[in-house]
TrEMBL record:
SUPFAM superfamilies for this protein: HIT/MYND zinc finger-like (SSF144232)
Keywords, sorted A to Z: Metal-binding, Zinc, Zinc-finger
Coiled coil: none
Domain MYND-type residue range list: 1157-1200
Gene3D superfamilies assigned: 6.10.140.2220
Superkingdom of origin: Eukaryota
Pfam families in the cross-refs: DUF4470 (PF14737), zf-MYND (PF01753)
Organism for this UniProt entry: Podospora pseudoanserina
Protein name: MYND-type domain-containing protein
Length: 1209
């Protein structure tokens, strides 16, 4: 396997639901374009897929949405079978949404629902006689990546049709209840956190508490026997075990409600809002939660039925390890082959072979727009899933890899070197460099500071869903042409993985070794190095040869012997005919083989009587069983093994030298009584030269903690050896059982050079870039260990003349976060260097080679807050070349018409449910930005509201727009003018139609129309009458400076594209027809005063009666475009999004959540002497001091209306 394996002889557990609310898998892709998606199957697949298709309704129709879903292991097969059962029931339309809910989610079924389930299961079983038979049936849009997957799920469906699996169901549920109590107690942290996510952005007013109670009620109803109902065979089959010692359990929670978006259940909604509950005031909050989830479920099923029924959506399933599938698909993409010698899963020797009709003759995708790895990164390592997904990611700006992890420290995400790996792999999270996201985690952050947790029990962080995108494609005009010296790459590789693999070295202090969640072994490292070589246009073999150039003291203990000669596909690369048959190993044979190949496979068996006591201990203690193979005499250990249960029956004939024979496998695996067959690759030099009587191989338990806890006592030896095998009982072959030799797949030096395009670079004076190891940083164990060198060869006569003239000064000028210009003299020659990641001039050095005719800019890697130019880089978009269609980079797409509409007509004193908006929108200011606001306020008595930071000013403007649109801080208006008094006055008008709940992203969004003024439009005088009318209305003027105005213009394409319901016209769209420098399409179109910012394709394409103003439909609407504007938060990868002290105050309850100073945000605190006083005129807005009130008057004066109390007698 690609990563170390942790076994679970107790057979683990079955999760019937996921604790993550549904997300859209196409949320980062432009509307209307085909979408190929790869994702990991879990209990959340149905939610995510159904919600994705529901989110697409009403948007420009995609030609296809093709989803490939993979799942590993026995429980993965059960999840596939269960999902197909649900999908086919939905397609047949013979049952109601309520029946589908019960069959999919309930552990106990009524007789009628049980009959419907078993009838459908029998139908599926009958159709699954072969792939051809299945595809000839009614469910051909549900497909399989290989025939083995169909066989696995067919076996599960057969269990659904009988009652055998339901035996001992009561006992299993009793055991599940006991496990739940041991793990979570009465209310588990995971449940509270998931409830907050499901209720966001409205996790106040008792919603979370009600959902938590419903979750517990659902669990008790599940584990309690219901005499009038029968066990659900879907649950029973997944929990059944042939061995009574396999103590399988049902995972807590089982409540499906946590997978839905429930904020609308407790929000005041308008009469025509989606998901509005009738007679809401007469219903209990729990009933409203259930009704909200059921409404969404019905809509999602209908959307699935339409999309799949019309053959616009296809779902493919693979019962295989995620990494095995990725590398197999990569080989299919690279050379058309159907296999890559990767074993299907961790406990088997069968190889994953793709279906020929799908992947050789058919249209099954082998590269993807989206790779969603779910929570696999926490289990297998984010670096591993990122590398595996990267090799299948399309080279398009919108292409995205999703990972989920607890990401408090950015560098820790990728083993302490995230910045460096981001450069070398060419991807980074969209929110990192922009330090901005419209996905709120406000509710989760506040929940961690609530009274639910003691200080020592708070969650260790917030689970982040990161969207990784190509670096070079995010930057206009940039090409992906980074390379690196082979020696530098090896030094970096050893610096990272050498540190990791010290855990594998033999040590007297066993406590220093890594535990079972260690994410790497030697094969992992070899594959990652191979991917880096391909990304950097380096020949893999020559990179390995560069080990010879390293100092002798450095080479000692390197990974060279373990990775040398390995290919990315998990088998050694051919190195001539090894000329040997499968034979027992000896020192003499190892010495002979070491001269012919670097690595070979060894295979040995572990008798059942040796491993069974350890497996039983694992079951009794309820702990995992991580294993390793050791070579005691060589003082080395390996976790990159493959095992199966059974015996080796024969070896192949001598004309198939080094290829292992067949292994008769026992399907009962840990439940059976067969021997374990263990096979792995090792360097032959580890055996060569040893005396045969002193050589051995051993299978051991791997984790020090579990060894001390249990295994050491059972095994009775300090090494925790399960079984040691003398060398003459070890078989040696070229490859592992089931594998065969693949053709050499390394990238040649010639092809790498061609890929880099050096001749083109040289002739056009285009820069090319090299990653350089900063050896000083390595020595200092710094996080950032790379430099990027931009190099330009001066080939023109003019350039060489200027270069040779020493009187001509040459300097650097930074013109954007990514661009450094090398300027000759008074701009006689300007050479731009566009880096793929932001750089800072202050951390760059200029090298000028006047005789050798080149210039170089050497940049150290920087952090987002180190680059002042990134202050305005907040919501960028880029054009997909050559079409010109914009792609948003860090703001998800929405279907506005599906989102609930908040009612803002309620009296805030009577309906506190709307007050959450104040906290939600005010927290767009990070802790650092709040301090900056206070500093600016304190230093300037004549503060105008415009500070030194354009980003801070932009957020101030957004906050003002949200507050005035909602009416929470005084007057209310939906009309805003963005005005730069020093540069032309009003540049655009914003008309707010509604504030909608964006529950999937835990925030709110303004449904609005934008009317940008161009010189041509103003000169036409078509809007003259409408503008005169505007002057008589309550319009809030948002005063901006030139830098903030540019930020608005840069953000407009993202605001438009994310909610687009129309198609770009390729003949008239300005994004398509207009070209910038070097023919590149540009987004936005222009930042210059009076020029067009966004294309005209969306003008006038608004819902009817969108804005209730006179002359709106006749004039203004024709030039207005619909936009979706969300609060923009700082990224927790970059800085603290909220000060802990403020979080504690806000988490205390409803009043504290809104009782903040209107100017600086301070909360009332008696101990600190902070008292808030109301504005004496409106009696609504509060301030901590007269100074704050004075500074805020510019914004407050237009909303401040005299309170009625002043007129009462």
């Amino acid at each position: 396997m690609f990563t170390p394996t942790t076994h679970h002889p107790m057979a683990g557990s079955f999760a019937s639901v996921d604790i993550t609310p549904a997300i859209s898998l196409t949320g980062d892709l432009p509307q209307g374009l085909p979408a190929d998606i790869l994702c990991v199957v879990g209990p959340d697949l149905a939610h995510h897929l159904l919600f994705t298709l529901a989110s697409e309704k009403g948007l420009p129709q995609r030609k296809s949405i093709d989803v490939t879903a993979c799942a590993e292991g026995e429980q993965g097969v059960h999840q596939i079978a269960r999902n197909i059962l649900l999908f086919t029931l939905a397609l047949d339309s013979k049952i109601t949404a309520e029946q589908a809910w019960n069959i999919y989610y309930d552990a106990w079924l009524t007789p009628s629902n049980l009959t419907a389930l078993q009838t459908q299961a029998q139908k599926l079983f009958d159709l699954a006689s072969s792939l051809d038979a299945w595809y000839a049936g009614p469910y051909s849009q549900l497909r399989f990546c290989d025939s083995g997957t169909l066989e696995f799920v067919k076996d599960v469906w057969s269990k659904y049709t009988t009652s055998e699996a339901t035996e001992n169901f009561d006992t299993i549920l009793e055991r599940s209840q006991k496990r739940k109590e041991e793990t979570y107690g009465e209310e588990g942290q995971a449940v509270v956190t998931s409830s907050v996510r499901s209720c966001a952005p409205l996790s106040v007013g008792g919603l979370v508490e009600a959902l938590t109670e419903l979750t517990e009620e659902n669990w008790q109803a599940t584990v309690k026997k219901q005499d009038e109902k029968k066990p659900n065979p879907v649950f029973a089959a997944a929990l059944a075990a042939s061995d009574e010692n396999q103590r399988r359990v049902l995972e807590y929670p089982t409540d499906p409600l946590v997978g839905f978006h429930l904020a609308s259940a407790n929000a005041p909604l308008t009469p025509l809002s989606p998901y509005r509950i009738e007679n809401v005031d007469k219903k209990d909050i729990k009933d409203r939660i259930v009704e909200t989830a059921r409404m969404q479920w019905g809509d999602w099923l209908e959307a699935f039925r339409e999309a799949v029924g019309e053959k616009r959506a296809t779902v493919r399933f693979a019962a295989a390890d995620f990494f095995s599938l990725c590398w197999t698909l990569k080989r299919n993409k690279d050379c058309g082959e159907l296999e890559a010698c990767w074993h299907r899963r961790e406990v088997r020797f069968d190889i994953l072979v793709l279906d020929e009709k799908e992947y050789a003759e058919g249209e099954a995708p082998n590269e993807f727009d989206v790779v969603d790895t779910g929570v696999l990164g926490d289990e297998k390592g984010v670096l591993n899933v990122l590398v595996a997904g990267l090799v299948l990611l399309k080279r398009v700006p919108s292409s995205t890899i999703y990972t989920e992890c607890y990401a408090k420290d950015y560098e820790a995400i990728l083993e302490g070197y995230t910045s460096a790996f981001s450069v070398l792999l060419g991807v980074s999270p969209g929110e990192y460099w922009t330090n901005s996201t419209s996905v709120a985690v406000v509710d989760e952050v506040l929940a961690t500071f609530s009274e639910r947790y003691a200080d020592d029990e708070r969650p260790r962080g917030i689970q982040s869903r990161l969207a990784w995108k190509w670096n070079s494609l995010q930057v206009k005009g940039q090409r992906d042409q980074l390379t690196m010296e082979a020696r530098d790459l090896i030094m970096f590789f050893e610096g990272v993985f050498g540190r990791i693999f010290k855990a594998y070295e033999s040590s007297q202090d066993n406590s220093k070794r890594r535990g079972p969640h260690h994410h790497f072994h030697f094969n992992t490292a070899a594959a990652i190095l191979k991917v880096l070589c391909e990304r950097l246009c380096l020949d893999f073999r020559r990179v390995l040869d560069s080990y010879e150039t390293l100092p002798a003291d450095f080479r000692a203990g390197t990974l060279e012997p373990h990775i040398k000669g390995w290919g990315i596909c998990g088998v050694p690369e051919p190195s001539g005919n090894p000329a040997y048959t499968g034979d027992f190993l000896s020192g003499e044979l190892a010495l002979k083989l070491n001269k012919k190949l670097d690595s070979a496979a060894i295979t040995f068996t572990v008798p059942a009587e040796k491993w069974k006591p350890v497996a039983q201990c694992s079951r009794d203690e309820g702990i995992p069983l991580p294993l390793k193979v050791t070579i005691p005499e060589a003082e080395i250990e390996y976790t990159n093994y493959q095992l199966a249960f059974g015996s080796i029956t024969k070896f192949n004939s001598p004309d198939q030298d080094g290829v292992p024979g067949k292994v008769d496998e026992d399907k009962e695996e840990w439940s059976g009584s067969s021997d374990i067959v263990v096979s792995l690759y090792v360097p032959m030099e580890k055996f060569a030269g040893f005396q045969q009587s002193k050589q051995s191989v051993a299978l051991c338990t791997a984790d020090p903690f579990y060894n001390r806890l249990a295994y050491k006592t059972v095994l009775g030896n300090p090494q925790c050896e399960i079984h040691r095998v003398p060398i003459d009982s070890v078989l040696v072959t070229h490859v592992l059982p089931g594998q065969w030799l693949l053709e050499n797949e390394t990238v040649s030096v010639e092809s790498a050079t061609k890929k880099l395009g050096e001749s083109e670079v040289t002739s056009s004076m285009t820069p090319w870039f090299t990653a350089k190891l900063d050896e000083n940083a390595v020595d200092a164990k710094a996080d950032v260990v790379l430099q990027i060198i931009g190099h330009i060869d001066i080939t023109s006569d003019e350039g060489r003349s200027l270069l040779s003239d020493k009187s001509v000064p040459i300097k650097m000028e930074q013109v954007s976060p990514f661009t450094i210009e090398v300027v000759f003299g008074a701009r006689k020659l300007v050479l731009p260097m566009i880096f793929t990641v932001p750089v800072s001039k202050e951390k760059c050095a200029l090298r000028v080679a006047r005789k050798s005719h080149y210039v170089e800019v050497v940049s150290s890697l920087v952090k987002p807050l180190d680059v002042p130019q990134l202050d305005t880089h907040i919501l960028p978009s880029t054009a997909i070349q050559p079409s010109g269609i914009p792609a948003t980079l860090n703001i998800p797409h929405l279907n506005l018409d599906n989102l609930p509409i908040l009612s803002i007509d309620e009296d805030e004193d009577e309906d506190p449910r709307i007050k959450f908006l104040t906290t939600l929108t005010s927290l767009v200011f990070s802790g650092r930005e709040r301090r900056l606001r206070e500093e600016v306020n304190a230093q300037d008595d004549n503060y105008t509201g415009l500070g030194p930071s354009p980003r801070l000013n932009f957020k101030e403007s957004l906050f003002t727009i949200f507050m005035l649109s909602s009416g929470l801080q005084g007057g209310q208006t939906g009309l805003f003018a963005i005005s730069d008094p020093k540069n032309g006055g009003i540049h655009m008008l914003l008309f707010v139609n509604a504030i909608r709940l964006d529950c999937p992203h835990a925030t709110v969004v303004l449904d609005a129309a934008i009317l940008p003024f161009t010189k041509a439009l103003v000169d036409s005088k078509e809007l003259e009458g409408f503008l005169l009318l505007i002057r008589t209305l309550e319009c809030c003027t948002i005063t901006v400076d030139d830098e903030e105005l540019k930020m608005w213009k840069k953000a407009l394409p993202a605001f438009v594209e994310r909610c687009r319901t129309w198609e770009h016209n390729p003949k008239t769209c300005e994004y398509v027809t207009a070209s910038g420098e070097k023919g590149q399409k540009t987004v936005p179109l222009s930042l210059k005063e009076g020029e067009q910012v966004i294309c005209s394709c969306g003008q006038g394409k608004l819902p009817s009666d969108f804005i209730p103003l006179p002359e709106w439909d006749e004039t203004a609407a024709m030039y207005s475009t619909r936009v979706a504007i969300s609060p923009v938060y700082a990224s927790q990868l970059v800085e603290d999004i909220i000060d802990p002290a403020l979080a504690r105050g806000l988490a205390g309850g409803g009043e504290k959540r809104v009782a903040g100073c209107r100017a600086c945000g301070k909360v009332e605190d008696e101990e600190e002497g902070v008292a808030l006083k109301k504005c004496g005129r409106c009696l609504k807005v509060r301030y901590c001091s007269g100074e704050c009130q004075k500074r805020d008057w510019r914004k407050h004066r237009m909303e401040c209306e005299e309170a009625e109390e002043h007129h009462r007698k």
